[in-house]
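Category: protein sequence paired with discrete backbone structure
Discipline: computational structural biology
Format: plain text, a pair of labelled lines
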Amino acid sequence: MQGQELRDFIVNKIEDIKARDIAVLDVSKKSDVADFLVICSGNSNTHVRSIANHAALEAKHGGFPAIGIEGEADSDWVLVDFGDVILHVMQDVTRDFYQLEKLWGH
């Protein structure tokens, strides 16, 4: 699955589980680590964890397992690394504090 296809797949899967305020950032010209960042919000620790786990599970079933998952213990910010796409699932307070969209110039 190419970066754009994977990005669209991840967005579709997080929409299924009611992720909010989804933002997709093309960072291919700014980073060698990933082509896209997908950032979204969840309503609670449980919702944040569920969004991240759902995306990881569906990607695995689609033949593209996550490279790693970080932050599940606290679940105010869970990062799922899919290689070309990195998913950031955050609670609103954490998202407002770190402002990844602003950091990456979008």
